[in-house]
Amino acid sequence: MRCRRHHATATPVKGRGIFSGTGLIITALAATAAALLFPLWSYGRQGGTAGAQVLGARTVTTPYGPLSERDRDFVTKVRLAGLWELPAGQLALEKGTTQAVRDAGQHLVDGHTSLDAHDRTVASRLGVPLPDEPNAQQEQWLATLRGARGQEFDRQFAGLLRLAHGRVFSLVAEVRAGTQNALVRDLADDANTTVLDHIKVLEATGYVDFSALARDLATTPSPVPTPPVTDAGSAVPVAPSPSESYSMPPAASSPLPVDAP
Hints:
single chain, elongated
């Protein structure tokens, strides 16, 4: 009888130990969850960028749809493109030896003036900071163009700008296909129109070596890409597409109103 009483009283003690250990685990898990959720709650209280709330480490919500890290990078790169391609176009207007090169320069000036205005409007609404100067690589490209003269300038201008536009063209397509943000989609549409226009007028100069260009686009970008060597005397400007293909995109179009959440 003593043994039975001993075991009968021992069983509840053992049960309390199990429940006590489980309670500690649950308490610890709850504390961990609270610690993880607190930054999200805190960010929401602060408002965030453009009324955004954190979706993840790299994506935030906005009144225009989720804004990813790639979206922000794209908005920045559109600005960077204009910071060196617009001055490059101005150099072509001043130094180009053929009308085709000068025409290409005018398209770069017009296109990036409009696209840059659109990009700055989008960046302002989404709270994306933008650079004010070209990066080191772009400064090198501009230095190359400033130092070139005569038909060597024409060759360098067409080669460098066509290679750069070929690389950005694929980026625009990727962003346009995958972004969930309405403002970024609109900007990508504008950029696609502008970049394709510039590709066409650069090719119309007659200085683009397509076989060398294909090889360069298939390789990892070098700090300062060397354009294909083309005999300046053999460069023959080609007739561009009909003029309606070159209509410039509108400056900073206003997005459709979206009700804030």
